[in-house]
């Protein structure tokens, strides 16, 4: 699929969502639909947290303020703001930097006025934006990272801009245009765009000892990365850089991270002697000559930190909190693995092995390397061999990121074959690991875990599997997992078609959990698998139940932000104790 074809497909998806709302007697702004599509993708690949669309366009004096959506980290220490420039064109067009900067300025004004309290005082108490604006006021002082993403269906020349300062905090500016979105889709590896230019961040190529590989798997290099350069790289790319999503920063309260902080503060020149260093993987390396004539790395493409994420993040956050620290005297030992494997599945397996054997500071258990767990491997095999009741279609379990697109590229070598593949296994029947965890936990009446966000919920899910079900799933179990996916997707569609301005993700997970509670084991997952969908009576009941759950969530939250309150087990205890309309007897899925 070319960029042009991808744009046409994306616009078709936007129009389909708008039409779906219209059929239901509601209105969805096309730019809001586009915002939802793009931010959902960004969340799936770990670029942001669980996003919510929220249209704000206000004038305070002569200043225009704009917002299209937002995402708050699980610990409320990072915030992403989204502002959308949407044209709805089916042809690829360029967008000038000046237009992007203007939209960014409007979003930054929204942030500044929210922090100052001027925006909250100007809004009606019933305004959907008020909760988020008050959240910004409450947590702004403790925020470690703020990013503004400009989303557009045109092609931008610049994908990022210099950080700006708002109320004493640095705000990163990035662009997610249709070209960048297409690259993610086409290549299946969004880290491909993580290109680190050492001539830029260090002022010269990074001196190293470079050893060409003796096998076809990888080349090898040893280097010492300046602490200031590593801090700058993390500032630019954040958690996307760390450990191939194995885990995130564990904070500075752990013993090892406190030691890193203390060394940076008290003996920065001894950092290299005390620290075990980091391990990087990259898809390719560009070599040149360092200042002394030795071999140096001028850039790394697709760079990831598979060991030493704690070191990297500790350097960044320590320097942010204690500006007097002199990183110019800090060097971080680095082992660099340049991949020569081009099969995404084999590459992920190799990276997982590197991470498993390299980690020695904050230990990473084998159970943390989720993709290669027997559970996921068996699910992938079952998805390939289990056909729908019609004997033609299948579901696709994406164990390795991008494997669905790889399958289409490899097997769809003719237009007819590609069409047949998409008909048999459409994108709507693709399941990724984090989504599976969401489906299962919602059905198991744990919506508060789902509300923690994709990564934390997934970690809880894998811990549950390790505790209760160490063996791989069987064919019957696989079909019931798919039935849970069908159920969740059906509820999601019903909620999306309803008149819910915000917190739809929380409403969906809590509605699924409430449905499971009210049906008390009487709703047959086997029947859902056979039907490959939900009956009309069940969908009608789900729509009614969702409205009651929404009211329960909002009433129980009080003055708290619904999305934050929904993460608490107390929230589920309170919501589940309320009275709801009982399931009607005409639902065929009930046994």
Keywords:
alpha/beta, 8-stranded mixed sheet, single chain, globular, 18 strands, about 600 residues, 6-stranded mixed sheet
Would you give an account of this structure?
The protein is of the alpha/beta class. The strands form 4 sheets. Strands 9, 10, 11, 12, 13, 14, 15 and 16 form an 8-stranded mixed beta sheet that branches. The protein has a 6-stranded mixed beta sheet with strand order 1-2-3-5-8-7. A hairpin with a 5-residue loop joins β2 and β3 (78-85). The longest helix is centred in the last third of the chain and has 22 residues, at 475-496. It is globular and about 80 Å long. The protein starts with a helix and ends in a 15-residue tail after the last helix. Residues 243-256 and 360-368 have low confidence and may be disordered.
How many helices? The count is 24
What separation lies between the terminal Cα atoms?
Answer: 45 Å
Radius of gyration: 25 Å
Structural class: alpha/beta
Largest sheet report? 8 strands, mixed
Work out the strand percent. 15-25%
Task: Give the helix proportion (percent range).
Answer: 40-55%
Query: Any low-confidence stretches, pLDDT <50, length ≥5?
Result: 243-256, 360-368
Shape: globular
What does the average pLDDT come to? 86
- The number of strands is 18
């Amino acid at each position: 699929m070319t960029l042009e074809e991808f744009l046409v497909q994306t616009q078709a998806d936007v129009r389909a969502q708008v039409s779906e709302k219209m059929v239901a007697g509601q209105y969805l702004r096309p730019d809001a639909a586009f915002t939802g599509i793009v931010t959902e993708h960004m969340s799936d690949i770990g670029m942001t947290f669980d996003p919510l669309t929220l249209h704000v366009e206000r004038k305070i004096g002569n200043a225009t303020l704009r917002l299209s959506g937002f995402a708050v980290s699980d610990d409320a220490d990072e915030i992403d703001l989204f502002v959308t420039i949407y044209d709805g064109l089916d042809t690829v067009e360029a967008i000038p930097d000046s237009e992007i900067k203007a939209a960014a300025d409007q979003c930054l004004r929204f942030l500044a006025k929210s922090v100052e309290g001027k925006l909250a005082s100007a809004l009606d108490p019933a305004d959907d934006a008020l909760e988020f604006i008050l959240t910004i006021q409450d947590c702004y002082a403790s925020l470690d990272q703020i990013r503004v993403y400009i989303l557009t269906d045109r092609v931008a020349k610049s994908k990022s801009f210099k950080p700006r300062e708002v109320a004493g905090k640095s705000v990163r500016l990035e662009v997610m245009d249709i070209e960048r979105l297409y690259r993610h889709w086409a290549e299946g590896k969004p880290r491909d765009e993580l290109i680190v230019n050492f001539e830029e961040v260090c002022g010269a190529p990074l001196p190293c000892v470079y050893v060409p590989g003796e096998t076809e798997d990888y080349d090898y290099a040893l280097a010492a990365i300046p602490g200031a350069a590593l801090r700058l790289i993390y500032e630019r790319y954040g958690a996307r850089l760390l450990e191939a999503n194995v885990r995130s920063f564990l904070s500075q309260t752990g013993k090892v991270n406190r030691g890193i902080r203390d060394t940076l503060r008290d003996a920065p020149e001894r950092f290299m002697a005390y620290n075990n260093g980091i391990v990087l993987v990259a898809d390719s390396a560009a070599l040149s000559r360092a200042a002394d004539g030795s071999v140096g790395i001028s850039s790394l493409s697709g760079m990831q930190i598979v060991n030493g994420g704690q070191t990297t993040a500790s350097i960044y956050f320590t320097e942010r909190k204690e500006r007097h620290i002199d990183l110019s005297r800090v060097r971080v030992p680095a082992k660099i693995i340049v991949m020569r494997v081009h099969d995404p599945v084999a590459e992920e397996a190799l990276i997982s092995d590197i991470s498993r054997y390299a980690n020695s500071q904050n230990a990473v258990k084998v159970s943390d390397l989720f993709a290669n767990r027997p559970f996921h491997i068996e699910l992938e095999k079952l998805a390939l061999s289990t056909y729908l009741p019609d004997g033609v279609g299948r579901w696709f379990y994406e164990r390795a990121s991008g494997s669905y697109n790889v399958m289409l590229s490899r097997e769809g070598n003719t237009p007819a074959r590609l069409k047949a593949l998409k008909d048999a296994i459409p994108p709507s029947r693709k399941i990724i690991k984090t989504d599976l965890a969401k489906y299962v936990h919602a059905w198991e009446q744990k919506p508060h875990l789902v509300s923690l966000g994709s990564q934390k919920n997934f970690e809880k899910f894998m811990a549950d599997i390790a505790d209760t079900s160490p063996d791989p799933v069987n064919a019957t179990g696989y079909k019931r997992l798919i039935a849970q996916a069908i159920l969740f997707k059906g509820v999601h569609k019903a909620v999306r078609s309803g008149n819910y301005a915000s917190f739809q993700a929380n409403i969906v997970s809590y509605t699924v959990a409430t449905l499971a509670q009210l049906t008390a084991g009487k709703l047959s997952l086997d029947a859902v698998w056979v039907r490959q969908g939900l009956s009309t009576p069940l969908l009608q009941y789900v729509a009614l139940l969702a409205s009651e759950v929404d009211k329960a969530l909002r009433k129980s939250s009080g003055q708290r932000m619904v999305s934050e309150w929904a993460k608490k087990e107390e929230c589920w205890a309170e919501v589940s104790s309320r009275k709801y309309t009982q399931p009607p007897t005409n639902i065929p899925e009930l046994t």
